[in-house]
Amino acid sequence: MSRYDVVVIGAGLAGLTTACQLAQAQKKVLLVSTGGGALLLASGCIDVLGFQPATSKQPVTDPLGKLDAFLAEAPDHPYNIVGKANVQTGIETFWEIIHNSTALEYWGAADKNWLLPSAAGAVHPTCLAPTSLANGELTKGGKMLIVGFRELRDFYPALITQNLNEQDLGVEAASSVINAPEPLAKNMNITPLELAKAFERSDFRRKVVQSLQGQSKQFNRIGFPAVLGLKQHAEVLADLERMLGKTVFEISTLPPSVPGRRLFEGLKASFLQAGGRLIIGSKVVEGLIENGRVSQIQMETANRLRPLTAENYVLATGGIYGGGIQTDLDGQVWEPIFGLPVESDSNRHTWFSERFLSNAGQPVSQYGIQVNEKLNPVDSNKTPIAENLFIAGATIAGADWTRGRTGDGLALATAATITKQIA
Amino acid sequence: MKKSTEVLVIGGGVTGCGVLFDLAQRGFKCILLERGGLSMGTSGRFHGLLHSGGRYVTNDPDAARECIEENMILRKVMPHAIEDTGGLFVTTPWDPPEFADKFYQACLNVGIPVEEISISECLRREPLLNPDISRAFTVPDGSVETWEACQTLTENAAAYGAETLTYHQVVDILVENNKVVGAVAKNTVNGEEVTIEADLVVSAAGAWGGKIAAMAGCDVTVYAGKGTMIAMNYRMVNTVVNRCLPPDDGDILVPIGSVAVIGTTSVRVENPDSYAIEDWEIKLMMDEGEKLVPSFKKFRALRAWAGVRPLYQEKSAGMDLRDVTRKYALLDHTPHDGVDNFVTITGGKWTTYRMMAEDTVDLVCKKLGTERPCRTAETTLDPPHGQQKFFKLTQRLEKLEKGELDGQLICECEIVTRPQIEENLKDNDWNIINDLRRDLRVGMGPCQGGFCTYRVAGIMHDNKNLSAKQTNKALVDFLQERWKGMRTVLWGRHLRQMKLDEGIYMGLLGLDKLPNELSGNDQARIGEVETEGFYEIEPDAAELSTAAK
Ligand SMILES: Cc1cc2nc3c(=O)[nH]c(=O)nc-3n(C[C@H](O)[C@H](O)[C@H](O)COP(=O)(O)OP(=O)(O)OC[C@H]3O[C@@H](n4cnc5c(N)ncnc54)[C@H](O)[C@@H]3O)c2cc1C
Ligand SMILES: Cc1cc2nc3c(=O)[nH]c(=O)nc-3n(C[C@H](O)[C@H](O)[C@H](O)COP(=O)(O)OP(=O)(O)OC[C@H]3O[C@@H](n4cnc5c(N)ncnc54)[C@H](O)[C@@H]3O)c2cc1C
User: Fold this and answer.
1) Distance CA A14, CA A412 (A)
2) Average pLDDT over residues B233-262
3) Residue B398 shares a structural domain with residue B544
């Protein structure tokens, strides 16, 4: 008898949401991960499809509606394998988890993108966003004041507002840079997390509002870098809105991401509440496949290997960025835990395109595990390699989020697909 | 536009800058033309080593002698541009053991201060070196800051009235009755043509020397010998470390700023403006690095770049490039081609630029019928801008530790602060991010600008009154330049770092979706943001297929 129904490897968006759903469906779930995944660095929003075609500069406003057109153009994208219905289920299930079992609030629907300002003043089309970010919706128009702190080197309000204004988006933006109040005053190298903690103090907030006195009057909305509190974010936001008498919004900035951390903590708490078991800081180093099934995996703890067994296994190790796909100087590309086959070219010259900001995606980012509709790994003849092993998120071949901004949508869609089969 | 001068110098590498200073100090009216920024040719794409001569001591004692003499002079005349790292020659298990004694004796013969040290002493100084090293010798190698040196030379020349025109590409040499009378240059920023009349023209165009000579109808063969180097993300040694063997690929490791650079290869290429970094070069260098420092491959390769050695040959033949002499060629085109008032200086080494300049200007004097002694070996040069402009990592670290470094830390790897950037922005008008990279080394450290590029762009936008589009374009161009150097060395952890950068610039900032097309005027302000743009390091299909074999 296995101790667990499911072991999920990787606590990124794909692993966490799969684990949450399965735990909520009364499965005994163990989630093992070396770290917290891309979530902790990314915007905190859920991108499903932002641009179609991927090279277009015009944001998509209806992600689900544009999905077919996107897939026709990118037949190798794994959205094609999970299908449109699972993309929609993924979004809905995520929303339910957030609303039913966390203190967070996310807004949106599969057929509508928010158009939010980025920290460079670009338009970020995204499907689901937390309240504070959604408040920055650009199509609402009006006058917005974007506030930065002299002490925070990762946010440049003048650049943001000028880019927003020059794109004629219907908003009128202005910028202001203020000094951070005590206890952060003159600490020129503060991080977004330090600021977020400071914002949880009411005296800090009061002083911030004081510095904006006289400046904020003519604006409908006041925007800040995404540093408005961590655990007490909802109170921080409400309090600032009350004191300023305006809608307040956040703009995601350089890592570490405060909204990303809120989401990570929310999903983690929800998983634990549903009875899941979580190990963060350990690495799964090996998995054994016998007779078409995974029989056990080995987890590295402080100084020894620990075998783990379960009925089913979910590999959500995040592709090249997460560590789920490895590469080396000699042009080898491999999946390090199960040694699953990865189709690749050993000539490293073919891995990259000439441009860095390539909307077609770097060829190397397409490398990953081939899967069937159940998301079992398959070999080159499309024969499943292990029927109780499922691949989620960025480790799947073709799952390059830069193509159309599809990373979070895929993580959620694969989580939904897998949950259906195991739960 | 028309200008006139006594002597016109073509090429703003270290040789041209050295010639300009020497001319100016000897009282000539002179102008220098460089098609890019200063030191953006081979002088900016080299290994950064102030040679002691040890590298050449067995196979080319004359070149070695030149190196050690100049090494000692340069330490006196431009100390601010030199880091006295010292050098080591070490015998690893892969090196012929009998070479060590030959090397030692040859150093003594040439007059290179050499000393054998014990292995334990060697490892005490450089703990990461291979413990199986069997012999170790110290020599006075150093490292040089080329950008700072070239700036020093042109600024000191300016004090004598010399003029330096960067972003001016020579497109024609004016010849009348077999006499050179000037040159035509094109301003690469605004397209304007400038004609400069001169009594004499010196071509110091390095590997491009043949092309310039051809413009005057002269026949000069300069081979382009490509050499590739890789910067690693950690300063794993504080001393220049050479393998104790006859010169070979990947035999020197040089500490520069916060990184260490392994090099080089040596491959003849047809066109100094277009060559590829080949995969075998990368692999070979990584393998050779591992022989010097056993944990070498555990560090990350940050970027690879290549430069082209100007290798002058009287007659062409298919020989191994390492046998072509590294000594320089000074050509008087009167006897050489029957063309008067024209001189070519090419070849040599960075380390010997001053000696090359002295010889060149001696010849200029002779040709112009005047006698003016050279004083460059005795003249200590003023640092550029009273040393405000350039910052050294070691100084910055010291200040940081003492708590004397004020302001926001913008580039954590190279310890560059916001006030330093703002100060630097004051006297820069275009090529902005790249100039910062050159002067302050912003974005040159282990993170390769992942975070600081956005910060610098934000500061630049605030300080320089740039339009949003200009800022977007500067950012995109900078990232693209960096991409060219990076993509040949992306695997493992560094590839993951690249995915993070993609997340920042595409996912979080949406830079790829922002407008950045500039109209005429905006373009002129930002300039062509290309340091390495002349050198299209795109893998060429034919070269790739041979490399794969
Ligand atoms: C800075 C940044 C910005 C981004 N912006 C966008 C965007 O705007 N739009 C978009 O669509 N996408 C974006 N993405 C991508 C998007 O976030 C990812 O595609 C998505 O979150 C992938 O989730 P994942 O769960 O598959 O992988 P990850 O989040 O990478 O999670 C993988 C997890 O697996 C763990 N792991 C790996 N190997 C092992 C092992 N052997 N043992 C145990 N654990 C292991 C890791 O620690 C990690 O927790 C961005 C990514 C980054 C980094
Ligand atoms: C890989 C490598 C490593 C090296 N390492 C070392 C080392 O560690 N130590 C050392 O001492 N030496 C080293 N060298 C040698 C040294 O770098 C060169 O000898 C030296 O930099 C040559 O300087 P230069 O000024 O003659 O040429 P360059 O620096 O190439 O200058 C010529 C200039 O002419 C300009 N130019 C070309 N055409 C035109 C035109 N039409 N109009 C206007 N301008 C034009 C170019 O843009 C260029 O800036 C190395 C060389 C290579 C290739």
Assistant:
1) 6
2) 93
3) yes
CA distance A259 to A44: 5
Rounded to whole angstroms, how far apart are CA atoms B262 and B47? 8
The label of the residue with tokens 């010639």 reads: B19
Q: Compare CB distances from B455 to A153, A252, A357 and report the shortest one's residue.
A: A153
Inter-chain contact B483–A355, Cβ cutoff 8 Å? yes
Name the pairing type of β-strands A29-33 and A277-280.
Answer: parallel
In a domain, B377, yes or no: no
B513: closest chain A residue by CA: A57
Q: Which residues of A touch B462 (CB under 8 A)?
A: 156, 158-159
B415 part of a folded domain? yes
Domain count, chain B: 2
Note whether A123 contacts B487, CB cutoff 8 Å: no
- Please indicate whether, in this complex, the C-beta atoms of A162 and B467 are within 8 angstroms of each other: yes
Nearest to A328 among B455, B491, B548 (CB): B491
HSE (CB half, 13 Å, CA atoms) of A145? 19
Q: What local confidence, expressed as pLDDT, does residue B524 receive?
A: 45
Q: Cα of B42 to ligand 2 centre, how many Å? A: 3
Flag whether B100 is in a domain.
yes
Domain that holds residue B528: 394-548
B309 Cβ below 6 A of ligand 2:
yes
Residue A54's closest CA among A65, A45, A67, A44?
A: A67
The distance of Cα A362 from the centroid of its chain, to the nearest Å, equals 20
Rg over alpha carbons for chain A, rounded to the nearest Å, is 22
Q: Are residues B429 and B293 in the same domain?
A: no
**Residue of B296, B466, B491 for testing the chain A interface, max A β-carbons within 10 Å:** B491
The domain boundary residue, chosen from B261, B290, B311: B311
Record the tokens describing residue B460, joined without a space: 């630049």
Is A10 touching ligand 1 by the criterion CB < 6 Å? yes
**pLDDT greater than 60 at residue B391:** no
Question: Ligand 1 centre from A44 Cα, in Å?
Answer: 12
ipTM of the complex: 0.97
Least CB–CB distance from A254: residue in B410, B454, B538? B454
Q: What's the CA gap between B284 and B277, in Å, rounded?
A: 12
- Fold of the A119-251 domain: Rossmann fold (3.40.50)
- Residue of chain A whose alpha carbon sits nearest to that of B459: A156
Q: How far apart are CA A414 and CA A419, in angstroms?
A: 8
A39, A60, A163, A334: best mutation site toward chain B, by most B Cβ within 10 Å? A163
Q: How far apart are CA A77 and CA A74, in angstroms?
A: 6
Residues from chain B contacting residue A59 (CB–CB below 8 Å) = 513
Tokens for B393?
Answer: 């990592």
In a domain, B373, yes or no: no
Q: Which of B191, B162, B151, B174 has the alpha carbon at shortest distance from B40?
A: B151
pLDDT surpassing 60 at residue B10: yes
Contacts of B541 (CB under 8 A, 6+ apart): none
The contacts of residue A181 (CB under 8 Å, 6+ apart) are: A203, A204, A207, A208, A211
pLDDT 10s digits, B267-285: 999 888 888 898 899 999 9
Q: What is the CATH number of domain A2-104+261-422?
A: 3.50.50.60
The three-state secondary structure class of A128 is strand
Residue B193 structure tokens:
């043509």
- Is 0.90 surpassed by the pTM of this model? no
Span B424-453, pLDDT tens digits: 777 665 556 666 776 677 777 667 678 888
Does the distance separating the beta carbons of A57 and B510 come in below 8 Å? Answer: no
Residue A375 burial (CB count, 10 A): 25
Q: Where in chain A is the domain with CATH 3.40.50.1860?
A: 119-251
Q: Tell which of B311, B343, B358 closes a domain.
A: B311
Contact A37, A44 (CB under 8 A): no
Asked if B23 and B15 touch (Cβ cutoff 8 Å), the reply is no
